[in-house]
Amino acid sequence: MSSTTASTPATLLPGLRELMDGRWASVREDVRKQLGDRRLHPDPQWDLERHRAHITDLAHELAAGGHTVHGFSADHGGSDDIGGSVTSIEMLAYADLSLMVKAGVQWGLFGGAVQALGTEEHHRKYLRDIMEMTLPGCFAMTETGHGSNVAALETTATYDVATREFVVHSPTPTARKDYIGNAARDGRMAVVFAQLITPEGGHGVHALMVPIRDEHGRAMPGVTISDCGVKAGLNGVDNGRLVFDSVRVPREALLDRYGHVDPDGSYSSPIENAQRRFFTMLGTLVRGRISVAGAAASATQSALAIAIRYGQRRRQFEAPGHDQEIVVLDYTAHQRALLPALATSYALHFAQEELVRLLHDTQSGGTQDEEIQRQLEARAAGMKAVTTGHATHTIQACRQACGGAGYLTENLLPQLKADTDVFTTFEGDNTVLLQLVAKGLLTEYRDTVGDLNSLEMFKFLAEQVVDAIAERTSARTIAQRFRDPATDDADWHHSLFADREEHLLAGAARRLRRATEDDADPFEVFNDAQDHLLAAAKAHVDRWVLESFTSALERCEEPDVVALLERVRALYALSNIEADRGWFLEHGRITAAQSKAIIGAVNDLCREVRAHADTLVDGFGIPELWLDAAILRN
Predict the structure, then answer these.
(1) From CA 154, how far away is CA 326, in angstroms rounded?
(2) How far apart are CA 37 and CA 32, in angstroms?
(3) 318 in the same domain as 226
(4) DSSP secondary structure letters along 352-375
(5) Which of 72, 216, 297, 491 has its CA 20 to 30 A from that of 423?
(6) Distance (Å, whole) CA 293 – CA 254
(7) Consecutive 10-residue averages of pLDDT for the chain (634 residues)
(8) The domain containing residue 131 runs over which residues?
(9) Residue 537 sits in a domain of what CATH number?
């Protein structure tokens, strides 16, 4: 560590900022220049209307500044920069999470759906107005009765051949569209997801453009709009509810890139298989899920910046031989509360950057490679689940680390806590998303193992016995190899993360094979293995996050930055292993002595990282006025 301890923040910070800003550094800097000179956090005394009006004004300001065009087609005034659009959302999350959500609804979900699911006619008609926010809109998917299970949505869109119109209808109370951003106050049109019905029958969920307000702000005939009211957080966003009573829209309202209805009611699609068509349509909307992960990461970084800076100045209790009280960040317990979370935030930042790059390259190139699409969707689901879970845990830890001061709204942490709490369930419930990750992993596993006949199954089971013996040998080898828990042995960290993932996945696959037995209840088998599936999915994401961290270090050309971040990476890896050391012990991956040594190693790494804590939080590049907490002003 001599190279990093000899380095100063002035020499470390430029290289660290360059690495953290990454491929879309110019987008980050543009947002800082436009908004970074103002404190944008809401006044806690504002009423609902004042807060919503403030956020709407800021959204119009973003549109006027040209920061809303990144994700849209250059043919219609955009810049074809999908990665830039996600990065700009991440930056807004540092400033105000209500603004981030408002922007995400307007330009990510509403505009993104028109861009991804519509055709050239829709793009020409709507995109410029959406970018300029002269057409504020909604993304009306979630219903009272169905959130995660999109395929079972109840709203219908029935084609009337005589009038060449679709009739959009909410047939039951549970078909009401719920929690719809932009609906309660500002939205004039909604992308409505509904079961498409033609004279030929049902064709599954499709999306249509449905006007919900006229130019005077009055609800359109047949549309009932209500307000979700005050929420725990994000009150600058006008969430509302929509009910449709036989609302008629023209045939052209169907966003028909993947499903077209001719004037005579004939249905056609470039994707013949209905299930594949459904998942293809949802897959094009993955940008929203990735944006939520990035926004959660930004909010967590803000909380850590406040708590760690406060921990550098807050003093409590004198030690023998000292003439003043001790800075609380010098206490091991305080370091453990914040610094492993700081290391995890760095790891997730680099993984998010790789995910945004994959999204940009995949969607910009228009790839139809199903394997790449599956990888993108699985990583987006996994990152959203892990990053938002990390946000919920870490922001609470930051609040507690600031004591009573952390409970005051003037110190921003309560607002961050309230605003991010819903992130674990919107854009996909985290448990459901991890199951999606597990399903993708099992599909890959099945493709590798294949469908087994009796002889193959016998061979497979015999191989499992051989593998079990090899596993015990491998575990002993891994344990013997790990002599010094304090060492930055990245190869050892990677091998443990990969081994855990592979073992959990193979075990889950074996448990699910029971569903193929004659007397098995497939649901009961799946339900019984759910804990195993979630553990496998989490292990997969953790492994990929660690690999992303390592890849970022390989790109960095500043030796002192690399030396510092190697310690941060080691802290991320070892604190992760420590948190799961019961599993590693039970499966012979570490010895009891090594398990105890890991605790000491994490303590040592916390002390090393603590020496650079200010530099590391400065490395996030958050404008100072966006961290304007009262406890940091003197």
Answers:
(1) 61
(2) 8
(3) no
(4) HHHHHHHHHHHHHHT---HHHHHH
(5) 72
(6) 30
(7) 52 93 95 89 90 95 88 89 94 95 95 94 96 96 90 97 98 97 97 97 97 95 97 96 98 97 96 88 85 97 97 80 82 95 98 95 75 88 96 97 94 96 91 89 66 42 43 48 61 94 90 78 83 93 97 94 96 97 93 92 95 96 94 86
(8) 17-137
(9) 1.20.140.10
Return the number of other C-beta atoms located less than 10 Å from residue 146's C-beta.
17
Q: Are residues 471 and 599 in the same domain?
A: yes
Buried b (16+ CB within 10 A) or exposed e, 161-173: eeeebbbbbbeee
Nearest Cα residue to 572 out of 549, 554, 592, 555: 549
Nearest to 199 by CA among 168, 161, 163: 161
Asked whether residue 327 is domain-assigned, the answer is yes
Whether residue 312 is found in the same domain as residue 301: yes
Q: Which residue carries 């004939």 as its tokens?
A: 266
Alpha-carbon dihedral of residues 70, 620, 415, 542, nearest 10 degrees?
Answer: 90
CB 579 within 8 A of CB 610: no
Beta-carbon count within 10 A of 255 CB: 24
Query: SS3 sequence, 122-174?
Result: HHHHHHHHHHHCCCCEEEECCECCCCCCHHHCCCEEEEECCCCEEEEECCCHH
Answer yes or no: are the C-beta atoms of 349 and 357 closer than 8 Å: no
**Residue-wise DSSP of 447-500:** HHH----HHHHHHHHHHHHHHHHHHHHHHHHHHHH---TTS--HHHHHHHHHHH
**In whole angstroms, what is the distance from residue 534 CA to residue 432 CA?**
9
pTM exceeds 0.85 for this model: yes
Spatial contact of 90 and 295, defined as CB atoms under 8 Å apart: yes
Question: How many domains does the structure of the chain reveal?
Answer: 4
428/93 Cα distance (integer angstroms) = 19
| Residue 11 within a domain | no
Residue 503: strand, helix, or coil: helix
Strand 223-227 relative to strand 240-244, pairing: antiparallel
Q: Look at residues 241, 240, 245 and name the one whose alpha carbon lies nearest to residue 222.
A: 245
* Cα torsion 368, 370, 372, 378: sign: positive
Tokens linked to 511 = 């448990």
* 214 and 308, same domain (yes or no): no
Q: How far is 246 from 497, CA to CA, in rounded Å? A: 54
CA atoms 524, 528, 531, 537: torsion sign: negative
Sheet with 223-227, edge to edge strand ranges: 177-180, 240-244, 223-227
Distance CA 620, CA 634 (A): 22
* Extended beta strands in 187-237, E state: 189-198, 201-211, 223-227
